[in-house]
From TrEMBL:
Coiled coil: none annotated. Keywords: Cell membrane, Membrane, Transmembrane, Transmembrane helix. It is a multi-pass membrane protein. It is found in: Cell membrane. It holds the Pfam family Na_Pi_cotrans. GO terms for cellular component: plasma membrane. InterPro entries: Na/Pi_transpt (IPR003841), NaPi_cotrn-rel/YqeW-like (IPR004633), PhoU-like_sf (IPR038078), PhoU_dom (IPR026022). It comes from Bradyrhizobium erythrophlei. One of its GO terms (molecular function) is sodium:phosphate symporter activity. Residues 343-422 form the PhoU domain. The chain crosses the membrane at residues 12-31, 43-61, 97-120, 132-153, 174-199, 205-225, 246-263, 283-304. GO terms for biological process: sodium-dependent phosphate transport. SUPFAM superfamilies: PhoU-like (SSF109755). The lineage of its organism: Bacteria, Pseudomonadati, Pseudomonadota, Alphaproteobacteria, Hyphomicrobiales. This is Phosphate:Na+ symporter.
Length: 562
């Protein structure tokens, strides 16, 4: 009997957690960017920040998510520590509201929520309608899970073994606080753990005092996750907000725990329903903690800044600037961050392209060394972007988001290939030219510089196509690809003409000249890859493929002059 009860209990908790996940992910998908903008606007003072924390967390049903979003703002210096701590006080109150609502018997609403959610999810014309349907289904699952938990625990009242076990582990208030903290840390949700405590208290598996102690533990445990997940080990300042929130929670627990038994007796005289008693104590604890600490945030912020100083800024070019882990649960924001980081990577590639040609023309060995170091940074950024987007795609993306994720990875890979061509090919050619003290002919140098300029201009156009998806610019990029192919053939013919004239500088640099043209054309081919998804979405790709093949046939069949 005991094992069956435990198994059913675990199943109910799992369903509750999944419902919470659907509500959380649905709200983030539907309103994530709007919520971030709201949060940014509400940071003028601690009271508006407190209100924003309540509203944001009431929607997200996760104080951990609010903490991660706010921590990312704080770590980058975009938000002051005092309003950020006020947000977390509000978040702690906001996460209690759904518990208060679910303490009433509204399980009959679950079928209605399922039907509304299914209709919205299956027939919604827009992505936001589908996400609201996901939220409705998630709320229905939460109500169903609570119904399952209560039905599971009701017959278990006659199982003496289960009752003895529960009395043994909940007999000591301190042990209850520790258990509540551990369970909440494991399930990553104070809402789920408090709802479970409500169910146990309603079925009288635990005493009222034990239930309140478990609630204190749940509040403490929910402050641990942001400390582990939201901080960066290389930046001590990123620990300030989650540690400050943990200090607030811990101080509140230490203040209430010694008086837990008289508080329990007082509340029982006022509210005999143990489930509602648990929910009301949960909200009262967080409101009282907010009232006590909202005026003490300045001193706490000063202490945290002394204990956790700002990181000394290091100029590591391979470190991503825009990949915000807290944005992964909001695909539109995460994709925007990944695109910005890809442009940052593209800036490195553009500088490499410019420096390698300068090294080639001026015989500057120092520039060659700089290009090699920059290629290592490009490789690091490419790896970071791919890992970030891969994490994002582990969740459920709609078709448009999935396509954009693949476009970002594809462009990052092509930029990395361009960096390799610059480092492994063009830099080697520059080193060879410098070592042997070769000089291009004036005409040859001018041709290579002009070819390089057209390639660099196309790279800048590609950045615009990547961000805007402009069909006209994509057409322009592919048209330039055909023109550049013809320009390469014309430059090769002129080079051979100079060879026939027997010009010494042309003879000694002939292989260098032709290899540079070839590598720049290869780079341009990788640049043009960004245009294909744009034209494919516009339905123009087959026509361009056909035009490219027709243009290439006479060019390849044309013999070189002897």
């Amino acid at each position: 009997m005991g094992s069956l009860v435990l198994l059913d209990l675990m199943g109910g908790v799992a369903l509750l957690l999944w419902g919470l996940h659907m509500v959380h992910s649905g709200v983030l998908r539907a309103f994530g960017p709007d919520l971030r903008r709201l949060l940014a606007k509400a940071l003028n003072n601690r009271f508006t920040a407190f209100a924003a924390g309540i509203g944001l967390t009431a929607l997200l049903q996760s104080s951990t998510a609010t903490a991660l979003i706010t921590s990312s703002f704080t770590a980058e210096g975009l938000v002051g520590l005092v309003p950020a701590l006020a947000i977390m006080l509000g978040a702690n109150v906001g996460t209690t509201l759904i518990v208060q609502i679910l303490s009433f018997n509204i399980a009959a609403a679950a079928p209605v929520l399922f039907i509304v959610g299914l209709v919205a999810f299956r027939t919604g014309p827009r992505s936001r309608i589908k996400d609201i349907g996901r939220v409705s289904i998630g709320l229905g699952l939460m109500l169903l899970a609570l119904h399952i938990l209560l039905d599971t625990l009701a017959p278990a009242e006659n199982a003496p073994g289960v009752r003895v076990f529960m009395n043994a582990i909940t007999g000591d208030p301190v042990l209850c606080i520790v258990i509540g903290a551990i369970v909440t840390w494991i399930v990553h949700s104070s809402v789920a753990s408090v709802l479970l405590v409500m169910s146990l208290a309603y079925a009288q598996f635990i005493s009222p005092a034990a239930g309140l102690a478990l609630v204190l533990g749940a509040n403490l445990g929910s402050a641990i996750n942001p400390l582990i997940e939201g901080a960066r080990r290389d930046n001590p300042a990123s620990y300030r907000l989650p540690l400050g929130n943990l200090i607030n929670r811990l101080a509140g627990v230490l203040l209430i725990a010694p008086f837990l038994r008289p508080i329990t007796e007082l509340l029982l005289a006022w509210q005999p329903d143990l489930a509602k008693l648990t929910a009301e104590f949960h909200i009262a604890f967080n409101v009282a903690t907010a009232i006590i600490f909202i005026g003490l945030l300045d001193g706490l912020a000063t202490l945290l800044k002394k204990l956790l100083p700002d990181r000394v800024q290091e100029t590591d070019p391979s470190r991503p600037r825009y990949l915000d882990e807290s944005a992964l649960e909001t695909p539109s924001l995460a994709l925007a961050d990944a695109a910005r980081e890809t442009l940052h990577m593209g800036d490195h590639v553009e500088i490499m392209l410019r420096k390698v040609m300068a090294a080639m023309m001026t015989n500057d060995r120092a520039l060659v060394d700089q290009v090699s170091r920059m290629d290592n940074a490009v490789d690091g950024l490419d790896e970071a972007i791919k890992l970030y987007v891969t994490k994002l795609t582990r969740g459920s993306l709609d078709e448009r988001e999935g396509q954009r994720a693949m476009e970002i990875i594809s462009f990052a890979i092509n930029l990395e290939h361009i960096g390799d061509i610059i480092d492994k090919n063009l830099s080697e050619l520059a080193t060879k030219k410098i070592k042997r003290r070769f000089q291009f002919s004036p005409e040859g140098a001018e041709e290579l510089s002009a070819f390089h300029k057209r390639t660099a201009d196309s790279l800048r156009i590609a950045f615009g196509v990547f961000m805007s998806g402009d069909v006209n610019e994509a057409r322009k990029l592919l048209a330039e690809k055909a023109l550049l192919r013809n320009a390469e053939l014309a430059a090769t013919e002129r080079h051979l003409d100079r060879l026939r004239e027997g010009r010494p500088e042309t003879i000694e640099t002939t292989s260098l000249h032709l290899d540079v043209l070839r590598d720049l054309r290869r780079i341009h081919s990788h640049i043009c890859s960004v245009a294909y998804p744009v034209l494919d979405a516009a339905g123009e790709l087959p026509a361009h493929r056909k035009a490219e093949s027709e243009a290439a046939m006479p060019a390849t069949a044309q013999p070189l002059p002897r």
